[in-house]
Write a structure and sequence with these properties.
Blueprint: H1 3-14, E1 28-37, H2 38-49, E2 52-54, E3 65-74, H3 75-83, E4 89-93, E5 96-100, E6 106-115, E7 126-129, E8 134-137, E9 143-149, E10 154-158, E11 165-168, E12 174-180, E13 207-211, H4 212-216, H5 227-232, E14 237-238, E15 248-249, E16 257-261, E17 264-266, E18 270-271, E19 276-277, E20 284-290, E21 304-310, E22 319-324, E23 328-338, E24 342-351, H6 353-360, E25 364-365, E26 368-388, E27 391-411, E28 423-446, E29 449-471, E30 478-503, E31 506-528, E32 536-537, E33 545-561, E34 564-577, E35 580-594, E36 600-610, E37 612-615, E38 626-629, E39 637-649, E40 655-672, E41 690-706, E42 711-725, E43 735-736, E44 743-752, E45 757-766, E46 770-771, E47 776-782, E48 794-799, E49 806-807, E50 811-823, E51 828-836, E52 846-852, E53 857-863, E54 869-877
Parallel strand pairs: 2-5, 6-12, 16-21
Antiparallel strand pairs: 1-3, 4-5, 6-9, 7-8, 7-10, 10-11, 13-20, 14-15, 16-17, 18-19, 20-21, 22-23, 22-54, 23-24, 24-26, 25-26, 26-27, 27-28, 28-29, 29-30, 30-31, 31-32, 31-33, 33-34, 34-35, 35-36, 36-39, 37-38, 39-40, 40-41, 41-42, 42-43, 42-44, 44-45, 45-50, 46-49, 47-48, 50-51, 51-54, 52-53
Length: 878
């Protein structure tokens, strides 16, 4: 073929109708008309490029004549020039361009969505316009703002667990207070028009909402429903060892989780060394877990945000709940102080293992006496008052504490050997707890602008005391030794948030905050009253630090193109401590692109900064771990995370599917170079005893959820890697993080057998955690020390190849629960029967090396703390 022929072929191929290749807004088109109606241009685009239009000739007028010649112009530009003068609107729906009549006058409806019986505001309720195919959702305070065209006659307002409601609209701006009626028939709750709840219609990714029903319906450990155990069943969230309520999100450590209780941070979210979470689950209204793609309004942590909102209290009538389980009892009461104006809710919970132990176990053995005191308690109070339709305040208070005390005494007066003690008394006591308060003011400036002002205070304190008394026979000499270790962390702050919604496809949030942190990580005292030696007391010279943190943020969520949506934000912060100023600019971006068949592809980039550190020798946040600020030697931790995913909710909202992949880098991570104990740690110079390194985590998460019908629940799978690298640890080589689990599988099911019976089951599989073990050992020199555990006084010396060079065995277990409930006219009662670890799987809690003195060998043994555990709980609601 000649050169001219080849050029002609290429030219024909380039200029061939795009109906063969498809089209988008960037498609280049060529059109030429003279004194023709706009309809002629539309027909040419359909004929030559396969771009189909849909419109009503009665509503859209295309008769205006034009003269137009364009060559290789973007389709988007042509349509703007073509339809702009007549204000004709156009939107792509699938492969169609839908034309709509000129924009009409708009009006804005705003207000609150609430429970029709209690007046409780409903966060996440959907407001949907079927005619516009647009909608919005209420914020965490139940407020919404929705701008519609003047010809929109009604919207549908719906919320899971409530009957949907058609709300007729007037022709002007209107402030509404919409009440929804609850229903027990979940099949009728969610209508197909409630599109805003669907995954494909939310730009936010890596977010999971947990409602109180999800928590209460799961099998219970020792009769206690637990929020964090439910969160641990989410893909990407690991709980560490079996039975521990600490959480590790996408390869992060426990201190990298920002846990907010009504807007106030909590620094330790557990009771009983992590077996139970801090909160009575019956008080929780909603919980949002962010695993990544963090909105700009959140900051200060690297791995996750757990935003917990408590119930406000019934505005109409009094009612409550009393529950008694195997290990704890609790009650809550709520009602109006001034009907429809002021309400309250109060709750208290107390465990009683100490009472069971002292009753069941014999505390006297010969001359020995012992006692155990071990329990936790927590109390909650929340009051809210409506000043006007546009002003409302909330006051929240929480106090929780754990106590552990062991006392032993022995009478040795019958012993003849005068070198021995006559009497001996030992006491060990440990306690830790949180105090959290918040005062919040909601104000509505107009139909599109909402604000929330929060003043909060949080405190976490830990205390350990050790006492030892003795008396020598035949003398008046007495020994009385006492030691105490104490630490405290406090935060107080003020934050102002604005929520602005100019139109359904565009919403903005912005705000500012100031927080003051007070650190007292180590105060120790040791006194020996039987000695002339000056006692050790660091109460006066222990480390004290005060830091001020400032932040500004702004985020914007809007529709860029017909199929492309974005959430772009910026979080700016500064941290001032000990004359040092740290500052950070943290960009956040999320994108959503709509695919055919209502699938949504989402992508996100997140930069996070954390100015405070947790000193710990383990991967689980125990009460002995202490918080410290960044210093001139140890800077703030930083992370950068990218994520890509796809998601969809089925048309009838019965099923939900999401698949996400992520990659995260972390810098300025800290870890002790050598193991150290609670009382031996040099907290005053902690930044000289840690190594500074970096970490990586990456993986994929799959979640399939069944949301409607008698059988509900979810199946989750996580494939993940998490590693660390420190220059002074493991010879500078990369090693796996302590809770690097390769595979996690979670299956949660809830089945409504009958109207009065409900069955639940949860099965989880987790790959083994990394474990450091010696590769060889040999006998050391003879020491002759009476404390030497070796029979000949030879100290065994272990040889290690690398850190975390082995893996624990895989763990898995099945928990089941059966609940019976009976509804009376004014009250209800229920029995819950649960079995934890049904098939008694021996999952390891801790590994240790034991020595067989006969065989002259050492072997690895494991400690199992949670075998098969049945429980029963009785509850009365009134």
């Amino acid at each position: 073929m000649s050169l001219a022929g080849k050029l002609l072929t290429c030219l024909l191929f380039i200029c061939m109708p795009l109906q063969v290749l498809g089209w988008d807004w960037q498609t280049k088109v060529s059109v030429s008309v003279k004194d023709q109606p706009i309809r002629a241009v539309v027909e040419l685009l359909e004929k030559n490029y396969g771009i189909r239009f849909s419109y009503s000739r009665d509503l859209v007028n295309l008769s205006r004549k034009i003269t137009l010649t364009v060559h290789q112009q973007r389709l988007k530009t042509l349509l703007e020039d073509l339809f702009g003068p007549d204000r004709i609107r156009y939107t792509r729906v699938g492969d169609l361009i839908v034309l709509q009549p000129p924009s009409q006058a708009t009006r804005t409806i705003s207000g609150y969505v609430q429970d029709g019986i209690t007046g409780e505001k409903l966060p996440g309720a959907t407001i949907w316009s079927p005619s516009l195919q647009q909608g919005t959702v209420t914020n965490q305070f139940g407020f919404f703002s929705f701008t519609t065209t003047a010809d929109t006659s009604a919207v549908i307002i719906s919320y899971i667990g409530y009957q949907p409601k058609w709300q007729q609209l007037s022709s002007q701006n209107k402030f509404l207070s919409v009440s929804l009626e609850s229903t027990t028939n979940l099949e009728e709750v969610v209508v197909s028009a409630a599109e805003s709840h669907k995954l494909q219609n939310q730009t936010q990714m890596s977010k999971v909402n947990i409602n109180s029903a999800d928590v209460r319906s799961q099998p219970k450990l020792l009769g206690e429903a637990d929020l964090l155990r439910t969160l641990q069943a989410i893909p990407g969230v690991s709980g560490g060892m079996d039975g521990i309520s600490g959480i590790h999100v996408r390869g992060g450590s426990p201190d990298q989780n920002l846990i907010l209780l009504d807007g106030s941070p909590i620094f330790n979210f557990s009771h009983f060394f992590g077996v139970f979470s801090l909160l009575n689950a019956d008080l929780v209204k909603s919980t949002d877990l962010y695993k990544g793609a963090f909105p700009a309004r959140f900051g200060g942590r690297l791995s996750s945000v757990i935003d917990i909102t408590l119930k406000d209290g019934d505005m109409k009538q009094f009612h409550g709940d009393v529950s008694i389980g195997l290990i704890a009892a609790k009650f809550d009461l709520e009602g109006p102080i001034i009907k429809d104006k002021t309400s309250f809710i109060v709750s208290a919970r107390r465990s009683y293992p100490d009472l069971l132990y002292n009753t069941v176990v014999s505390l006297k053995d010969g001359n020995n006496n012992s006692s155990l005191l071990a329990y936790f308690y927590d109390v909650n109070l929340k009051v809210n008052h409506i000043f006007s339709p546009k002003d409302r305040i909330f006051f929240s208070y929480y106090k929780g504490e754990d106590k552990l005390s062991v006392q032993e005494s022995e009478d040795k007066s019958a012993v003849v050997d005068t070198t021995r003690l006559n009497t001996e008394f030992n006491r060990f006591q440990m306690g830790w707890g949180n105090v959290v308060t918040a005062l919040r003011w909601n104000h509505i400036y107009g139909p599109k602008l909402f604000s929330n002002l929060t003043a909060n205070y949080s405190q976490y304190a830990f205390n350990t005391e050790v006492g030892y008394k003795y008396a020598l026979p035949g003398s008046n000499e007495m020994g009385d030794q006492y030691g105490r270790y104490y630490s405290r962390m406090e935060t107080g702050g003020l934050k102002l948030d604005f929520d602005y919604r100019p139109e359904p496809t565009h919403s903005m949030r912005f705000g500012a905050a100031v927080n003051t942190h007070y650190f007292r990580p180590s105060v120790s005292t040791f006194v020996d009253k039987g000695s002339n030696v000056t006692p050790l007391d660091t109460a006066a010279n222990g480390p004290k630090n005060t830091a001020v943190e400032l932040l500004l943020y702004a985020e914007d969520d809007w529709q860029l193109l017909p199929s492309l949506y974005a959430n772009i934000g910026l979080h700016a912060s500064a941290f001032m401590v000990s004359g040092r100023l740290y500052h950070s600019l943290q960009p956040r971006m999320g994108l959503r692109y709509m695919l055919p068949n209502n699938w949504a592809v989402k992508a996100a980039y997140t930069h996070m900064n954390q100015y405070i550190h947790l000193l710990s020798n383990n991967g689980t946040a125990l009460p002995t771990d202490i918080w410290v600020p960044s210093t001139d030697k140890v800077g703030p931790m930083t992370s950068r995370q990218v994520a890509l995913g796809i998601g969809k909710t089925s048309n009838k909202q019965a099923w939900e599917f999401s698949l996400e992949g992520y990659y995260k880098t972390m810098h300025n991570m800290i870890e002790y170079t050598e193991p150290t104990g609670l009382l031996t740690a040099d907290v005053l110079r902690w930044d000289r005893n840690v190594s500074i390194g970096k970490g990586w985590s990456y993986g994929g998460e799959l979640m399939i959820t069944r949301k409607k019908g008698k059988l509900t629940g979810w199946l989750g799978y996580t494939l993940a890697w998490s590693t660390r690298q420190f220059p002074d640890i493991n010879n500078g080589h990369i090693f796996p993080y302590k809770y690097d689990h390769r595979h996690d599988i979670e299956l949660l099911l809830n089945y409504a057998i009958t109207k009065n019976w409900e069955f639940s089951a949860a099965w989880r599989f987790t790959s083994g955690s990394p474990l450091t073990l010696p590769v060889a050992s040999y006998e050391g020199v003879e020491t002759g020390s009476p404390w030497d555990p070796s029979p000949n006084g030879n100290t065994p010396v272990d040889k290690y190849s690398s850190r975390y060079n082995y893996r624990m065995e895989n763990s898995h277990r099945l928990d089941v629960g059966l609940t019976w409930f009976k509804q009376k006219k004014t009250w209800s009662r229920s029995w819950n029967f649960s079995v934890f670890n049904v098939y008694n799987q021996q999952n390891p809690f801790y590994y240790f090396v034991k020595r067989d003195d006969v065989e002259k060998q050492r072997y690895l043994a494991k400690l199992v703390i949670l075998p098969l555990l049945p429980s029963i709980t009785y509850s009365v609601k009134f």
